[in-house]
Design a protein that fits this description.
YhaM_exoribonuc/phosphodiest, alpha+beta, nucleic acid binding, 10 helices, HD domain-containing protein, OB fold (Dihydrolipoamide Acetyltransferase, E2P), five-stranded mixed β-barrel, Hypothetical protein af1432, about 325 residues, HD/PDEase_dom
């Protein structure tokens, strides 16, 4: 059975043999307790990620060792289940021929539309009137050095917005939520400007923390330093380049970046110390949590149960039939 999307596979396909073109995101050779070699594989297309096993390693070891992460392959596999989740058992695998598939078509991508999102960025940028704050955004967001990465990188390795244009979508969500609260609570124009700048910059350093898709995982810099420190550090350096940058704005914006995780145990080295920083923190949480739930529901869509499985990061399951 030819599968166009991995999301088409469900528990009704158990024991079926399927064919598909997928992207290998990770491959590890391991040993069973009986010292038999097998391969653990992580596969994906634009619709879903899925785990797979290959038990016939001895006759395929050289081929498996030659494979690199983020290669497109054609597979024939049997659908199975392990601990409640779909798992594939690979029977045949070969490299996809050049021109047979576009790698970008196998990468999950925001469905918001890039042109619409860029208009959204412009909308919030236009709300910032203070010259030194506009220049900060010009240098950090809209410069040739950063704009392409800011527009294309994921916002996380997994859990939420872990797709092409994911960081951009997350930032826009945070800006929308923040702006709604700020105007509802009648913050001053200057507070709203600061909050918008914080929204733009709070996760900006993820363009240095993460590897570009289709790669996954952290860079060495990201592993060692993390986006919160890098974001505040690099923002401070740019602020120093701007003549007569307002000292109060500097402190408030940096506190917002450093405190956006909201708690010391969640990785923020300081707590939010302003109403703007507190709004930013809650907007960030709302964006991430809602996306996480919706993403999990989408992946679990073929399961006929009323509730999703338990989301490890949320600590509960969610009703799907609303």
């Amino acid at each position: 059975m030819l599968i166009n999307k991995l999301s088409e596979i469900n528990k009704g396909n158990i024991n079926d043999q399927i064919e598909a073109i997928v992207l290998i995101t990770e491959i590890k050779l391991k040993l069973t307790k009986n010292e038999k070699k097998y391969a653990d594989l992580s596969l994906q297309d634009a619709s879903k990620k899925i785990e797979a096993k290959c038990w016939e390693v001895d006759e395929n070891e050289n081929f498996l060792l030659s494979l690199k992460a983020n290669e497109a392959v054609k597979i024939k596999a049997v659908v199975g289940e392990y601990q409640g989740s779909i798992q594939l058992t690979i029977k045949e695998m070969e490299r996809a021929k050049e021109g047979e598939v576009n790698i970008r078509s196998l990468i999950p991508t925001s469905d918001w539309g890039i042109d619409s999102m860029k208009k959204g960025l412009q909308f919030f940028y236009d709300k910032v009137q203070s010259p030194h704050l506009r220049l900060l955004l010009d240098l950090m967001i809209f410069s040739d050095d950063h704009y392409e990465r800011f527009s294309t990188y994921p916002a996380a390795r997994r859990v939420h917005h872990n797709f092409y244009h994911g960081l951009l979508q997350h930032v826009l969500e945070v800006l929308k939520f923040s702006y709604t609260v700020a105007t509802t609570k009648r913050l001053t124009d200057r507070q709203i400007e600061r909050l918008i700048v914080m929204g733009f910059l709070h996760d900006w350093a993820k363009i240095f923390e993460y590897k570009p898709l289709p790669e996954s995982g952290f860079t060495e810099e990201g592993t060692m330093l993390g986006h919160i420190f890098m974001g505040a550090h690099k923002t401070l350096n740019v602020m120093k380049e701007i003549a007569d940058f307002d000292e109060e704005d500097k402190l408030i914006i940096l506190n917002g970046i450093l405190g956006h995780h909201g708690k010391l145990e969640f990785g923020s080295p300081v707590l939010p110390k302003t109403v703007e920083a507190q709004i930013l923190h809650h907007a960030d949480i709302m964006s991430g949590d809602v996306e996480s739930i919706q993403s999990f529901m989408s992946e679990d869509g073929n399961n006929e149960e009323s509730f999703t499985g338990r989301l490890w990061n949320m600590g509960t399951e969610y009703y799907k039939k609303g």
